[in-house]
C-alpha cells in the first residue's frame, strides 16, 4: 500500500493525527519514522557532506550517482533527444539500462522488478508522448505499492511556449498531478537548478526507507541536464529501514477483540513479508484463513485451514465457511477489501466486524464503511509477532473446514481440440508451479480468473496479479521485470488481446531475458464477450481476427510453439522451462468454456448494469478486471 504524502512542500513522514472513521474506531500506531520531522540529526540518519563535486559533473551525472546511492539496479525506458543526457548518464553508471519498445511496458516491468528484488526501479522517458505513454504503468505502480522513480525530460524554460518539438510545459500539458504531487505521484518536482539536488536526494532517500510504495517523478529540462554542478555537495544519508509498529494500546485492544470468540484471517498482498508469522498464528489459534487474489500463496493453499480465495476468480468454499462456521470477527491483514477482493459482499462480513491492520491509515473502514471496524496502523509482520506473544492457544477444533472446490476434469473428447482452459491450468500447475521455481503472473481478464481459481501456491511471492488498476499489458510486459530482477524464469499467463496490445518480446530477445508467455488464444476479448452474454446485453462485438502469435514471436527472435491439442500441452511447457531464451506458447483454447468470473458479473449487476431489449436504452458497458 502506498503512503499518503501530500506534496513536495510537506514532510515525507507525517505526524498529523490519524483520521477517525464513522462507525468504527482507529488506533494510532507508533513509528520510529515519525521522529524524523523533529530533527535532521536523529538516530539512523547521519547526514554529512561530500567534498565539493568537481564542476565537470553534470546534473544528469549527479542524478545517476544519486540513484546508485538509493540502491537502484535497473532503469527501463524509451530514449529520445530531449533526455539524451540523462540516458547517457544512466548508461555510464552501474545501473543496468534496458531500452523498451513502449514506455507503458517499461513502467510495468519496473513495477514487477521492484516486487522481485525490493529495490527501487527507474523509468526514463523523453518529453511529451514519452511521459504520457508511461502514465498507465506508473498508475499501476502506485496502485500496486511499488517504489518507482520516473525520470522525464521537459522543455527548457527559454523554449517554452514557442512550439518546441514535443513541447512539455504548462502550455501543452496540465501541470497539476503530472508534475506535482498528488494521486498519481507521491512526490513530483521539476528540477530547474542543480541547487535543488541535495533536498531532492534527501526526500527520496527517506521515502525509500519507508514501508509501502512510493512513486516519484523528476522532470528535468533538457538544458538543465547538461548544466554543471558547481559548489554543490550532495548529502550522504545513512538511512535505515523504519519500522511502523502498532501502539501497546492497539495491540491490547486487538488481543481483547480476537480473544472474545472464533476469528478468521483474511490475508492480502500487503502481508507478503509475514508469511511465516501468519502460518504460526493460524495454527496457534485454529483460525480459518482466506486470501485476496493478490495474496495467493502467502498462506499455503494446500493447508487444511485454508478455505479459499475471495473476490474475482475466487472460491465458493469461502461462502460455505461463512455460512456454516461463521467467525465472530475477521482479522484483515494487508488488503483494501476493494471490489476485486470482496465485491463488497455482505456475506463476507462477520457478526462483530473487522480488526483491520494496514500501513495506510486510510484503508480500514473504506470498503465496508458501515461495518464495525477496529483499525490498526502497523506493518503486518510486526503486528502478527505481537499477537503470537499475547494471544492464547485455542483448543483444536474437531470440525473440518470447507476447502476450495476443484472439479475433476472430464476425459478428453475424441478430438482434443481446442484446448480446454482447465486442462491447460492443470498442466501449468504440474509443470510450472510444482515443477519449477518460476514466478507466475496472470494478465487481467479471463487469464486472471482461470489462474486465480485453479492454480494453487504454497509459497509467497510466486504469484502476481494486478487488482488495483488491472491494465491490459501489465503481465505481458511486467514478466520481463520479474524475470530480470529474480534472475530466473518468469511466466506470464496472458490473453490474445493483451498480447496484441502491448508486448516486449523484442526487448526480451535483445537482453536474453528468460520470460515465458502462455497465450490463451481464443480470438476474443473473452471476459467482455462472456460477460455481455451473461448480463443479457447484445450487439457489442468483442471478437478478434485469429492471430498466430508463435509466428510473430519467432519473427522477433524468440522461440515459440503452437499448441492446439491437449495432449501436447505438458511437452510444450517442459520445452519452455528448459529453454534459455524467451519462449512463447500459443495455446488455441476453447472460447466457449465459461470462466469463473460470476462474482464480477453479479457485482456489475448490483451496480445497475442490466440488460435492455432496446439498444438505444442499453448502457455502454465494459468488463475490466477491476
How would you describe this protein?
- With 626 residues, the protein is of the alpha/beta class.
- It folds into three domains: 180 residues, 3-Layer(aba) Sandwich (Rossmann fold), CATH 3.40.50; 147 residues, Rossmann fold (3-Layer(aba) Sandwich), CATH 3.40.50.1220; 197 residues, Thiamin diphosphate (ThDP)-binding fold, Pyr/PP domains (Rossmann fold, 3-Layer(aba) Sandwich).
- Helix content is 31%, strand content 16%.
- The strands form five sheets. The protein has a seven-stranded parallel sheet. The chain has a six-stranded parallel sheet with strand order 5-4-6-7-9-8, sandwiched between helices.
- Helix 13 links the parallel strand 18 and strand 19.
- The protein is globular.
- The two termini are 17 Å apart.
Write the layout of secondary structure elements.
Elements (H helix, E strand, L loop, with lengths): L24 E3 L1 E3 L16 E2 L9 H11 L4 E4 L6 H8 L4 E4 L3 H15 L3 E5 L3 H16 L2 E8 L32 E4 L6 H12 L5 E8 H5 L8 E2 L7 E3 L1 H11 L4 E5 L7 H11 L3 E3 L14 E4 L7 H8 L4 E5 L5 H4 L11 E5 L14 E5 L2 H11 L30 H13 L5 E4 L3 H9 L8 E2 L9 H13 L3 E6 H6 L3 H7 L3 E7 L4 H9 L14 H7 L3 E5 L5 H10 L4 E6 L9 H9 L20
Helix pairs in contact: 1-2, 3-4, 3-14, 7-11, 8-11, 12-19
